[in-house]
Each structure stands twice: as C-alpha cells, then as structure tokens.
Amino acid sequence: MTSPELTRLTAAQLADLLVSGEVTSVEVTRAHLDRMAEVDDAVHAYLHRNVDEALAAAAQADAARAAGEPLATLAGVPVAVKDVACTKGQPTTAGSRILEGWLPPYDATVVSRLRAARMPILGKTNMDEFAMGSSTEHSGYGPTANPWDLARVPGGSGGGSAAALAAFAAPVAVGSDTGGSIRQPAAFTGTVGAKPTYGGVSRYGVIALASSLDQIGPCGRTVLDTALLHEVLAGHDPRDSTSIDAPVPPVVAAARGADVSGLRIGVIRQLGGEGYQPGVRARFEEAVALLTGLGADVVEVDCPHLDYALGAYYLIMPSEASSNLARYDAMRYGVQVGPDGVAAPSAEQVTAASRGRGFGEEVKRRVILGTYALSSGYYDAYYGQAQKVRTLIAQDFAAAFERVDVLISPTTPTTAWERGAKTDDPLAMYLGDVATIPSNLAGLPGISVPIGLADEDAMPVGLQVLAPAMADDRLYAVAAAVERELVAAWGGPLLDRIPAIDAAAAPVITVERGN
Predict the structure, then answer these.
(1) Beta strands in 4-56 (DSSP E)
(2) 82 is known as an active-site residue
(3) Which of 20, 63, 310, 475 has its CA 20 to 30 A from that of 320?
(4) Of the listed 181, 202, 354, 439, which one is catalytic?
C-alpha cells in the first residue's frame, strides 16, 4: 500500500491493518509526515512538526506489538494535538507569541494517555491565540487555510486540528472546545468533532481560557474514529478537581450500533431560521427527514433563553480569561521585554511592554472586556447577570431533555467564510458560534457530523447533536446513523469530494512555526 493510500484510510482501518501486520506504525506515521510536508506550507495546520519523536514512538509501538504486549485499539495510529495541551519537551504556545519558545516540563493528562495508548504524536496544530477566535485567523503565527478552499477559514479556534484531518495530514486529532472550537471547525471542514460532557476529559495540563467552559475532545474523519479517540482521552483524573469520577459512556459501542429507531429527537426552535444560510437550512431539513425515515420521533422543542446565550457567553468567557491570563506578567510566565528607550524600567513597565508585544489584538480586546465586567461596581450588573442567564439556559435544556433524548440543530449558521471577511467586525464573527455556545454554558456534550455541501458555495455543512450530561453515547449513535445513511447515498465519504490541494496556486499567507 502506498503512502498516499495510507493517509486516506480511517483510524479504524489503520488499526486493523496494524493488527494484521499488513503495515507498521512507522510506515503509517511516515506517510502522514510526508503528507504534512507536501501540503502544510499551503494549509498551515501545524505549528510544530514532531518528526523524530513521532517516528521513534511509532518504532516503539511496532516493537511492543512484535513482542506480543497487550495494546490499545489505536496503538500505532498517529495523532495530532492542538497546541493548547502541554507536551513535555516540545513547543507549546497556545498560538500566542507570549509563550514562544516555551518547552513544558510535563505532559497534559490527555497527552499522557495518548502516549500510554502508544499513539505517535505528529505535531502541534495551529489555533487562535489562547483559543480566542472563530476562524484561526488570530494565531500569533499566521492563519490556517481551509483545505476545501484555501482562501477560506477552517473555523476556530481549533482550525489546525480540523484542517490537518481534511488535508489527510493526520487520521485523528485532539481539540478543545470553549464555545464550539471543536464543532465549528468540524462543520467548516467536513470532518467530525465532539465536545464531551464537561469534566468527562481531564483539563490538567491544558492551557486555560475559561475554566468553567473549556473542554478537551476528539476530532476525526468518521464518527467511529472520533469515538475511538474519545475512549482513549476520557476518564477520571484526580489531578483535575472538575474531573467526573464515573465510568466513560459506551461511545464506541454506540458508534458501531448507529441506531436511532424509537429515539425522541428535538429540533431546537431558536437555532434556525433568520441568519442561517439557505444551503445550511436545506441540508439540515434533509437530515431531519433522514432521521424521521430511520424511525426516530422528531419534534420541535422550545428553549427560549438560548436567545441570550451569546451575550452571556461573551461576558463569562472574557471574565474568566482575564483572570486566567493575569499570570502572563513577564515575571512568572511568558516572554519578557523592556519598554523602548527606558534604561531602568520598573516591573510595571516590563509587564506592560511584554503583554503589549506578546498578546494579539483579540486577546487584548477580551481581557479588557472581562476586566471591566469583573470590576468593582459592575460585577453584579454584568458577570452576575450573565451567570443568572446561564442558569436559565441550563434549566431550558433540562426541561427539553424531559421530552426528548437528544437535541439537534445546524452546527453553524453559515459555511466557512473567506479569510479576512470578518476580521474587522468581531461581533459578526462571534455570531458564528451562536449554535454551539449554549451547550458549553450548560456543560452538555455535543458533536458535529457532516451532512453535505451548501448549494450556493459547495462548502461543508454540519449537523449538531446535543445530549444530557454523561449521555455522550447518544451523540455517537445519532451521528453514526446519519453518517452511515449519507455515505451510502453519496457513494462514499464527503471528504472524497474535496479538491486536490494545489500548494503552488495557494493564496499567500504569512506563515511562521511555533518553534
């Protein structure tokens, strides 16, 4: 089997070939590293390429298999990791210049679990700085391009992980989702991304944006691949005080079962209609009809306080971000530079100069907003009110799940937009997360699965499925059923239709690596 053929296989198919001995992990890992070298100057999915360590880990996986050691299902299958998770001895920047050159002295728990599963880490993927953004245009090291159309964004903040999958430069990837940063890029790139229940995957060693919202999760090209990676990442971690001490839901079995007969499915009334692109609405309505045809009972569900989710989120998230990012003061963390023209600067001057140089504009905007919302005299009026809205949204979901088993909506109101189209209008960009944010506020699991291309621009559209806390397996059952039917109707996966990447003809983007 040739290297290009290996990169087109799913993680589950690669795992089967590794077990049968038809390929080695070194061959699989080398194939993806070669693909990365071929396309990544045009896509810029990776900030750091982990060539030598990935091949060494692959050789160790092959040796363990040859020795007859018991191995995890995905042993030997390579993986990409969003640059928000600490990797011992490898550059970790969270997409920010303020952490440029930092080599963590320890692994995040999710990275430790990947290593324990003997999955070679291909590299660290690009992201909006500190996961603030909806397009991966706000990375301190240059934007990522959408492999479907290199002039368009891949979504954010996890655009690097999603683009690596769509470009066939990784079979699976790890992402993080604070307001939709796994699901929105999945929808924009025709891939699958899941946000587990809050606390279902450890956040230990993950650089914090908003601690009550952040969630690490799996990304793949198929629902089954995503479930297999979910199983590797999830589980209780005593080093994370928010980690849930309960068995991991049977996500892999649900993905393999792909059964929705008799399931009660609610269409969220507030997440559709005005502001949603016609092609997005059309594919969503087809998905609803498909689920009905499979025997699901589909009804409309009212969640009235979701109309206020975006406003509440953009008070809570910046408030927590301003607190978490206060540590980057040039004394304890981050780059340290002095102000120009000052011979003996004070500590305050060094902090101001370092933050001015290290933080990008979107980070500065959100820190200022959050600091204002938390300031004396405004706390109750802004942050306090937003937390009350958050409670009402959680109550809406709880009431809805008394009627239905899962909720569905389009993942995003539009398909991927052209790079630069919304960089001067932050509010317009924030609206791209309007359908994904509510589940983060409520701590609920969600998944995005591709449901076709929009008629007007031939770009991917995603279906979002939400479930009650710790019912993550329901997501995979619904998403896998939709995927199975659509792949059969299309005659193959949606990604089979992606145009070839012509690196020579790609729009020029300023690209810098994070190491």
Answers:
(1) 46-49
(2) yes
(3) 475
(4) 181
